[in-house]
């Protein structure tokens, strides 16, 4: 490990070249644009969930159109929430690709692969959202207790070996670089697959938090920012495992309180 990289193999801010600094600025600018688009695309119903007093959505004869719009908003939302967290990984990969004289287009392919992995999860996310819509029809108490169960399940997941295994890979992207970097160097397709691989680890780490976001209001900027902050704390700040456990304890506590007092959902909403 050189002095130009942090302990987890990602470049330190002070070690960035002018080109790498420009790449970081471009990625963060895309993230900022995605936050603005999230605000613009969000309908009032998409800012509420079963944890925030959502009402059942009216039946629509344009289900495929609704599904397509959901995937669009999901992709924009993932860009807004995840892009800042993968900026160090992308810069580290760009440095590797430059040293090994890879062809042009590998970094965009890496970025597209990462977002493609998250886009595919949008299918499961849509099914989850439809299930939450059905729960909203059942009444506020049922919906609130269901949301509380989501919080409890997400809290429990924070303590599981799978969560910690995925978190280690998310916090140490150099392991992915060392194992699969040569594939990314060989072709844009290889870079695309490496991006998908890193996205898969992030999905394994964050899927439960995303379900919490769906239950709270997927396009609410407040809830998006809260979940994005939690993900950043886990992935970037020191003591990631301890942070993960603390977040799990908070989710468990909130879920158990709402199971006993579901009327608090109405009070907060």
From TrEMBL:
InterPro entries for the chain: PpoB2-like
Spans traversing the lipid bilayer: 21-38, 64-86, 107-127, 147-170, 191-210, 216-233, 245-265
Coiled coil residues, start to end: none
Entry keyword annotation includes Membrane: yes
Keywords attached to this entry: Membrane, Transmembrane, Transmembrane helix
Pfam families on file: PpoB2
Protein name, as recorded: Metal-binding protein
